[in-house]
Structure prediction request, 281 residues.
Amino acid sequence: MTSTLVIFIVLSLLTLYAAYRVATAHLITHAALFLAGTFAGVAALFFMLQADFLAAVQLLLYAGAVMAVVVFAIMLSQMREAGDHVPRWVDALRSPFFGFLPLISSVALFVILLISYLDTPWPSSATAAAVNSTRYVAVPLFQSYALPFEVASVLLLAALIGAIVLTRREDDR
Amino acid sequence: MPGASGVPLIGYLIVAAAMFCIGAFTALRRTNAIMILMGIELMLNAVNVNLVAFSRFVPAGNGARGQVFALFVLAVAAAEAAVGLAMVIIVSRRRDTIDVDHINLMRG
Prediction:
């Protein structure tokens, strides 16, 4: 067992634990905190996959910007408690529709994915590492995917304007 | 080869699958609108891990196509978070709750 594998296992266990705490958090602020931890763990996984540009973007955009937006939404909606039925096992078993069915379906999805993954022959070794990974991303992004890139910028502008128009108060008009 | 050689592709795939299922469980189980959005963000992150892992392990021409796709997923997720949370804020302002079980005005 190499040291890389040990680091990977520890990292993924930490990431999945943070994701689990998001799913079972009582307070919505705790869920936001653990969500930031999950995003940081995913950024570390990107580093391990030698996608360092994407890891930096993940930290800036998800752990930074999206988390700030989530915290502002929690603050403005004034919901401190998660306010819903907390998923305890007994509670989940008692209410068949709102507890049991999501659990069954998500576990079943995981089992199906696991079986199909173990059944498939995957390429065993990684391809040669890129010398300059940012260039490695930028070349297809600005050559063959230039049009989707522009469409994404229009989408972001539309989302920006939409968010402003939606949250404006009526008496400002 | 140094780097990711110690970890097989299936390791990343299993972690991403587990994360996706936790996100799906959060989105289906919770009734708080912000928690549902957090579950969706978890699912999108898991998909990104899959895309980057495939772009590392499956050779494809010049450039990392999988990472480009992951960047597009990031842009769409940012737009979704902005508009979704704006909707949560106006709903909480008008209805005094963001519990999706109580937001049923358009249910037939």
About this structure: Chain A touches chain B through 88 residues (CB under 8 Å).
